[in-house]
Design brief:
The complex is a heterodimer.
Chain A lengths: L6 E3 L4 H10 L3 E4 L5 H6 L7 E4 L9 E3 L3 E5 L4 H6 L1 H6 L1 H8 L4 H6 L2 H7 L6 H7 L3 E6 L2 E6 H4 E3 L2 E2 L6 E8 L4 E8 L8 E12 L2 E10 L6 E2 L1 H7 L6 H8 L16 H23 L1
Parallel strand pairs in A: 1-3, 2-3
Antiparallel strand pairs in A: 4-5, 5-10, 6-7, 6-10, 8-9, 11-12, 12-13, 13-14
Helix pairs in contact in A: 5-8, 10-11, 11-12
Chain B lengths: L21 H6 L14 E7 L5 E7 L1 H4 L4 E6 H4 L22 E2 L5 E7 L2 H10 L1 E6 L6 H6 L12 E7 L5 H16 L3 E10 L11 E7 L4 E6 L4 H12 L6 E4 L15 H13 L3 E4 L2 H7 L6 E10 L4 E13 L9 H7 L9 E9 L13 H19 L3 H8 L22 H12 L1 H13 L3 E10 L27 E7 L5 E5 L8 H13 L6 E5 L16 H28 L6 E4 L2 E4 L2 E7 H8 L14 E6 L8 E10 L6 E11 L6 H20 L31 E4 L17 H18 L13 H14 L4
Parallel strand pairs in B: 1-12, 10-11, 14-15, 18-19, 25-26
Antiparallel strand pairs in B: 1-5, 2-4, 2-6, 3-5, 7-15, 8-13, 9-10, 9-12, 13-14, 16-24, 17-18, 17-23, 20-21, 21-22, 24-25
Chain lengths: 286, 803
C-alpha cells in the first residue's frame, strides 16, 4: 500500500492550479483523495504530480444562486448530505451523499470528487445525472459547462480533459421532487451500491409532467433510463404506472456482473430500485 | 476454598472496571510495532507470486539491486540453509522461507528486498523480474481430495489425514457407532435429513496488520525482535531454533497488538526472514504488511465443505449424527494447520448425547495456509451440527428448541460427562441456559409475532442455535496428543504463568506470560490481584509481551488467558499474600493467621484501627535487617498453572431477521445471546468480547467471503472486495448469561473470547432459512449476501423448492 513516488503541489489559487495542470504532464487533481489515494496505494494508478486544490479559497461552499445551487469542488459528502438547500431542491443528491462511504469518508471526500471519479458503483453521479446537473470545468484555457448527460463517458471516465478541474456542480432549482434508492453490497444502504436508481420528476394536474431516471452500478457508467421516462410521463404516477415504467429501466443498458451481483440480479435490482425511488418521488411531489 | 473460589464479598472480581488500556489506545498514544523507528533501520518488501501454481523459471534482481537505497535482494538459495519455516504441528508440506523452483499459492514470497525506505523497498520489489511457467492449480476441495492432481508432486496424496471419531482413535468403537447409526436409519419410524454446506474461507483482517522489526546485536550475538504477535515466547523460541541460538539470545517484544483473532498465532516466514536480513546487513530491519499482503499471505480461517446428516424419530429423538467433510489446509502447513479440524472434532457432537460419527479430511490445495481464526474448528463443527438439527426439526415439524432440549446431555450427568470422543467435560447445564434464553427473549411471543407477519406475506424468521465450546487450553499433557511446542523450544503443552511483585511503595507489578491483542489483560489481571491482596486496581501495573522479563507463557488464543494464566497469577498473588501476612504479623506483633487484608493494608482481626499499609509491609520486605530470623527479603512470587482439563463454555443464541423478498436483503432485527462462561471477572470486558465475537460470526454468515476463484486467484485485496461487518450493519446485541463455574481452575472462569463467533453464524443462517421456509428454501450457503439470498428465492419460486 505504498504509492510510487510523485510530486505534490498545493496551489493557492485556481489560476495557479490550472496553470500547473496545463504545464505538467501526468498531473492529477487531488480533492478529498478518498478514491484517488487508495488507487495510488494499490499502484493501480500512479500520477507523476498531484495538484491539491484543498487550499484554494472559494471552493468549499454550497451557494444558492437563484435558479441553481452550486456545489464547490471541496464540498464534502457530509456537507452535501446535511445542507438544507440541497435537501429542499436535490433530495436525491442529499440521500446519495448520506449513503456514500462511512463517516470518515463523508467528512473527507467530496461530492465533486465522486462525480469526477465516476465509479460505476458510486451514488452521487447518478443523482447528479437524474437532477440534470451541470458540471463546470476550469482550465488554463477558460471555463466551460458540461451537461451531466454529456459528462459521464465510461467507467472511471468523464468528459473532463487532462488540464481541467471540476470546480463546481450546479443543480437546477427545477421544482418537482427527487429521490435515490440503492442496495449496498452489505445490504441496506451501506457500502458501494450493487445497484441504485436516482429519479427526479414533476407532477402537474395529477400527471407526471416530466422526469429523469438514472441508474447506479448496473452499466459501465451512470446511465439515464429513457424508457422509464417515456413510459411514465403522462401517467398519473400510480403504483401500477410506476411498476410498468420501471420494467423498462434497462433499455439500452448493458448490465455488467461483479462479485456482488450477477447480470440477472443487477438487472432485477435496477428495476426494483427504480420503482422504489419513483414511488418516493411521486409521494414527495404530490 | 471450594469451587469458584477467590471471590471475596467486596470483590473487585465480577465488577465493572473500565479498561485501563483504553485511554492510550483511543488517544493514539499506544506503541505498536510499526511506530518503532530504530536508528539505521531498513525496510523490506516481498516479491510475491501472481500465480496459484507455477514453476519459477528465473529470478532476475539486477535492476532492483542497482536502485538507489537498495541494500540487498534475497532469494530462496540465500536462506536454504535455514530450512523450512519452523512449524509446531509438522504434518504435510512445510513452508519454505522463500519459494524456490515452484510457487504454490498466490502471494507466496519469492524474493525479499531490503532498502532504506519502505517506498524504495516496494519500488525495488516491483523491479525484480521473475519468470514463471504457470501450471494448473488445485483449488476445489473435492477435486483435491480425489487426488486427481497433486498439489505437491513429491507427495503421494493431497489428503494429509482425516480426523475421525468418536470415540477417537478406537476403530472398533467407531465401527460400532456407525453400525448403531445405520441401524437407526433402517428403522421405519426414523427420518434422515442431510445438509451439504460450504463453510467458506475467511480472511482474519485484524485492524493492525502484522508488523515485525528485527535487530541483530552483532556484539552480543543476540536478536531483539518486536512483533505484532499473539505468541511472543513461541516466536522467540522459533527464531532461536532456526538460527541455532539459545532462548536467552532472542528477546521478543509484543507491544500493543491491534487484534489477532488467531492470525498472529503463527510464526511467519517474514518474521524469520527479517531476522536473517538484520543479521546479514547489521541493521535493524522492519516489515509491515500491507492490507494486500495480509489478504494473501497471512493465514486464513475455515474453508470446509461437508455433509451433515441427522437421523431421528418423528418426535425429535435424535439417534445419530454424521459429518463427512473436507477441510482446506492450503498449500503449506504452519503452526496449527491440520490441528484446527481436530478442535472441531472435540465438539463435533456439541452438548448432545446422540451417537456421532464425525470425519473431516485435511487436504492441501494451491491456496494460502489455513490456521486458527477465532473459534478455529469449533465454529465449523457447531455450524454443521446446528444447521442439520434445525433442518431435522423443520422436517419433523417439532420446535427446534424442543428438539435440542430433548437431546441435551442432562445437567445431572455432571461431573462425569464426556464428549462423543470420550474427552471429559468440566461443568454444564444446557437446559437451564436454553430455557433462560427462551424466557428472556419471550420466545413464544416472538414466534407468534413471526407467524403474524408471515401471514401478512413478510419473510420474517427466527433462528436458534446452541453450542458448547472447548477452550482454555489446557492440560499441559496435551503435549502427548501431539500439541507440542517443541519446534519453538517450549517443552510445555498449554500451561500458564504469572508473576506478582509488591514494590516498596505498596504498588504491585504483575508480569504475565501472555499478552493481549485487545482483550483487556491490564484490567482483568489487576482485578485478579487486587482481589487477592486488597491493593487497589489503580496501584497495580500489568506488564506483558516481553520475553526478557515475562515468565514463559504460551500465548493469548483459544480463550485461554484468564482461565490458565489468570489462574497462575491468582496463585502467585496468594503466595505473595501468605508472605505479606507473615510480614504484617511481624509488624503488628501478632500471628499471621489473625491477619486480615482490607482497605489497602492489613490489620489484626478485631483491631482495624491498627492498620499497616502495603507500603509498610513491602518496606519491611526490602529491609532484610529488620526481618525476623529465617525470613527471606523481597515480596514477589511466580506461579505456573496447568489445569487438569480444558474448559467447556456453552450458550444459546436467538436471531430475528426479515428478508426483503424483492432484493434478497437480510435485515438482522434482533440478536439475543445467553452465554455461560462460568464466573465473570469483568462483565464489561466479557460483553465486549461477546460483541466482537458475534460480529465476526455474523460477518461470516452475512458478508465475508475469502474463497479463491477456480483459477486460484483471490479477488479480495481490500475491504472493497472483502466486506467486514461494521457497527452500522448490526443491531444492538441483547446479552445475557447464566453462570456455571468450572471446577478446573480456582477462578471458576471458562473463557469467552470465541464463544460469540462459535454460536452465531448458524443462528443467523437458521433464522434466514426460517424466513424463507414458506417458499420451500431449506438451505442457503454463507455469506448470505443479497444476491445469493435472492437467487435462492428465485430458485425456490421456479422449482417449488431448493436446497
Amino acid at each position: 500500500m505504498y504509492p510510487r513516488s510523485f510530486e505534490y503541489v498545493s496551489p493557492g489559487s485556481l489560476d495557479e492550479a490550472t496553470s500547473v495542470l496545463a504545464s505538467t504532464e501526468g498531473a492529477k487533481v487531488l480533492a478529498g483523495g478518498m478514491s484517488l489515494l487508495p488507487l495510488m496505494k494499490l499502484r493501480l494508478f500512479s500520477p507523476d504530480v498531484l495538484v491539491d486544490i484543498g487550499r484554494i479559497p472559494g471552493l468549499s461552499s454550497i451557494e444558492d444562486r437563484g435558479d441553481h445551487l452550486a456545489i464547490g469542488a471541496m464540498v464534502s459528502h457530509a456537507a452535501t448530505a446535511s445542507d438544507p438547500s440541497i435537501a429542499e431542491h436535490a433530495a436525491a443528491l442529499a440521500t446519495a451523499a448520506s449513503w456514500t462511504g462511512d463517516v470518515q469518508v463523508r467528512n473527507q471526500g467530496t461530492t465533486c470528487g465522486s462525480i469526477a471519479h465516476a465509479d460505476i458503483a458510486a451514488d452521487q453521479p447518478s443523482a447528479a445525472l437524474a437532477l440534470g446537473a451541470t458540471m463546470v470545468a476550469a482550465s488554463a484555457g477558460g471555463v466551460r459547462e458540461i451537461a451531466a448527460s454529456d459528462f459521464f463517458v465510461d467507467t472511471l471516465t468523464t468528459a473532463l480533459e487532462p488540464g481541467e478541474i471540476l470546480t463546481e456542480t450546479r443543480i437546477p432549482k427545477q421544482g418537482g421532487a427527487s429521490a435515490y434508492e440503492k442496495l449496498g453490497r452489505r445490504g441496506g444502504h451501506t457500502d458501494y451500491a450493487v445497484a441504485g436508481a436516482a429519479v427526479w420528476l414533476d407532477v402537474s394536474d395529477g400527471a407526471v409532467s416530466s422526469a429523469r431516471v438514472a441508474l447506479t452500478g448496473v452499466g459501465a457508467k451512470p446511465t439515464l433510463a429513457e424508457g422509464v421516462v417515456e413510459a411514465l410521463v403522462g401517467t398519473d404516477g400510480s403504483g401500477a404506472a410506476i411498476a410498468e415504467a420501471s420494467e423498462r429501466a434497462l433499455e439500452g443498458v448493458t448490465v455488467l456482473d461483479d462479485l456482488f451481483g450477477t447480470v440477472e440480479y443487477k438487472a432485477h435490482l435496477a428495476k426494483v430500485m427504480t420503482r422504489r425511488a419513483l414511488q418516493q418521488a411521486v409521494a414527495a411531489a404530490t | 476454598m471450594g469451587r469458584g473460589v477467590g471471590v471475596s464479598t467486596t470483590s473487585v472480581l465480577g465488577g465493572v472496571v473500565k479498561r485501563r488500556e483504553d485511554p492510550a489506545l483511543i488517544r493514539g498514544t499506544g506503541l505498536y510495532v510499526d511506530d518503532l523507528q530504530l536508528p539505521g533501520m531498513l525496510h523490506v518488501a516481498f516479491v510475491r507470486s501472481p500465480y496459484a501454481h507455477a514453476r519459477v523459471v528465473s529470478v532476475d534482481a539486477s535492476d532492483a539491486e542497482a536502485m538507489d537505497g537498495v541494500r540487498a535482494v534475497y532469494t530462496a538459495s540465500d536462506v536454504a540453509h535455514l530450512g523450512d519455516l519452523v512449524t509446531q504441528v509438522a504434518v504435510g508440506k512445510l513452508r519454505p522461507l522463500l519459494a524456490g523452483d515452484k510457487v504454490n499459492h498466490l502471494g507466496e514470497a519469492v524474493a525479499m528486498v531490503a532498502a532504506d525506505t519502505r517506498y524504495g523497498a516496494r519500488d525495488a520489489a516491483d523491479a525484480v523480474d521473475v519468470e514463471y511457467d504457470p501450471l494448473d492449480p488445485v483449488i476445489d476441495l473435492k477435486e483435491a481430495a480425489s487426488d486427481a492432481a497433486l498439489v505437491h508432486e513429491d507427495m503421494e496424496s493431497n489428503v494429509l489425514l482425516a480426523w475421525e471419531g468418536g470415540p477417537w482413535g478406537d476403530e472398533e468403537a467407531i465401527a460400532a457407532t456407525q453400525q448403531s447409526i445405520a441401524d437407526a436409519k433402517a428403522r421405519d419410524d426414523t427420518v434422515s435429513v442431510s445438509i451439504e454446506a460450504v463453510n467458506q474461507r475467511l480472511l482474519p483482517m485484524p485492524m493492525e496488520p502484522r508488523s515485525v522489526v528485527a535487530d541483530w546485536n552483532v556484539g552480543y550475538g543476540r536478536f531483539t525482535v518486536h512483533s505484532s504477535t499473539q505468541i511472543a515466547h513461541a516466536l522467540a523460541g522459533g527464531i532461536a531454533q532456526t538460527f541455532g541460538l539459545s532462548l536467552t539470545d532472542v528477546r521478543c517484544i509484543a507491544p500493543e497488538v491491534g487484534g489477532g483473532f488467531g492470525c498472529k498465532l503463527n510464526v511467519y516466514n517474514d518474521e524469520i526472514l527479517v531476522c536473517f536480513a538484520s543479521q546479514q546487513l547489521g541493521r535493524p530491519v522492519k516489515f509491515t504488511e500491507t492490507r494486500r499482503d495480509a489478504a494473501g499471505s497471512t493465514i486464513h480461517g475455515r474453508g470446509w465443505v461437508a455433509t451433515a446428516t441427522i437421523t431421528g424419530t418423528g418426535d425429535g429423538q435424535i439417534l445419530g449424527y454424521e459429518l463427512d467433510g473436507i477441510a482446506d489446509m492450503g498449500a503449506y502447513s504452519q503452526n496449527f494447520t491440520v490441528a484446527i479440524p481436530f478442535l472441531g472434532l472435540f465438539v463435533g457432537a456439541g452438548q448432545y448425547t446422540f451417537p456421532t460419527h464425525w470425519k473431516v479430511a485435511c487436504v492441501h490445495t494451491h491456496t494460502m495456509t489455513t490456521d486458527a481464526y477465532r473459534g478455529a474448528g469449533r465454529p465449523e463443527a457447531a455450524y454443521y451440527l446446528e444447521r442439520a438439527i434445525d433442518a431435522y426439526a423443520r422436517e419433523i415439524g417439532v420446535d427446534p428448541a424442543e428438539v435440542r432440549r430433548m437431546n441435551f446431555i442432562p445437567a445431572d450427568k455432571f461431573p462425569g460427562a464426556a464428549t462423543h470422543i470420550g474427552f471429559p467435560m468440566d461443568t454444564g447445564d444446557y437446559e437451564t441456559n436454553l430455557d433462560a434464553l427462551l424466557e428472556t427473549a419471550g420466545y413464544e411471543d416472538l414466534k407468534a409475532e413471526r407467524d403474524q407477519l408471515r401471514a401478512e406475506g413478510r419473510l420474517v424468521g427466527l433462528g436458534l442455535a446452541t453450542y458448547v465450546e472447548v477452550c482454555g487450553f489446557g492440560p499441559s499433557a496435551l503435549v502427548d496428543l501431539g500439541f507440542s511446542w517443541a519446534a519453538y523450544k517450549i517443552p510445555s503443552g498449554f500451561s500458564g504463568s504469572g508473576l506478582v511483585r509488591v514494590q516498596a511503595d505498596g504498588t504491585a507489578s504483575v508480569i504475565i506470560g501472555t499478552g493481549p491483542t485487545g482483550q483487556g489483560h491490564q484490567t482483568t489481571w489487576a482485578q485478579i490481584v487486587s482481589n487477592q491482596l486488597g491493593i487497589p486496581v489503580e496501584n497495580i501495573r500489568v506488564s506483558h509481551g516481553d520475553t526478557a522479563e515475562s515468565p514463559l507463557g504460551i500465548g493469548t488464543f483459544g480463550s485461554r488467558s484468564a482461565a490458565v494464566d489468570g489462574s497462575a497469577t491468582y496463585e502467585a498473588a496468594n503466595k505473595v499474600r501468605a508472605k505479606a501476612a507473615d510480614l504484617a504479623a511481624h509488624l503488628l506483633e501478632a500471628s499471621a493467621d489473625d491477619i486480615v487484608f482490607a482497605d489497602g493494608g492489613a490489620h489484626v482481626a478485631g483491631s482495624p484501627d491498627q492498620q499497616v499499609s502495603w507500603s509498610d509491609i513491602a518496606t519491611l520486605a526490602y529491609q532484610p535487617h529488620r526481618l525476623p530470623e529465617g525470613m527471606e527479603g523481597g515480596l514477589e512470587a511466580h506461579a505456573v498453572f496447568s489445569p487438569g482439563n480444558a474448559t467447556w463454555p456453552f450458550g444459546s443464541h436467538l436471531a430475528l431477521v426479515e428478508v426483503d423478498g424483492d432484493t434478497g436483503d437480510v435485515k438482522l432485527l434482533r440478536y439475543i445471546a445467553m452465554d455461560d462462561c462460568g464466573n465473570v471477572i469483568n462483565p464489561m470486558i466479557v460483553d465486549g468480547q461477546i460483541h466482537g465475537g458475534l460480529a465476526q460470526g455474523i460477518g461470516q454468515a452475512m458478508f465475508e467471503d475469502g474463497d479463491y476463484e477456480a483459477d486460484g486467484n483471490l479477488l479480495k485485496w481490500s475491504f472493497v472486495e472483502y466486506p467486514l461487518p461494521t457497527s452500522a450493519d448490526l443491531p444492538s446485541f441483547e446479552l445475557h448469561r447464566t453462570v456455571t463455574p468450572t471446577d478446573i481452575n480456582p477462578l471458576g472462569v471458562k473463557g469467552i473470547g470465541e464463544a460469540g463467533t462459535i454460536g452465531s453464524a448458524q443462528t443467523v443462517v437458521n433464522a434466514v432459512v426460517d424466513a424463507l421456509s414458506p417458499l420451500g428454501v431449506t438451505h442457503v450457503d454463507m455469506p448470505l449476501r443479497p444476491k445469493r439470498v435472492w437467487a435462492a428465492i428465485q430458485a425456490a419460486k421456479t422449482n417449488g423448492s431448493v436446497s
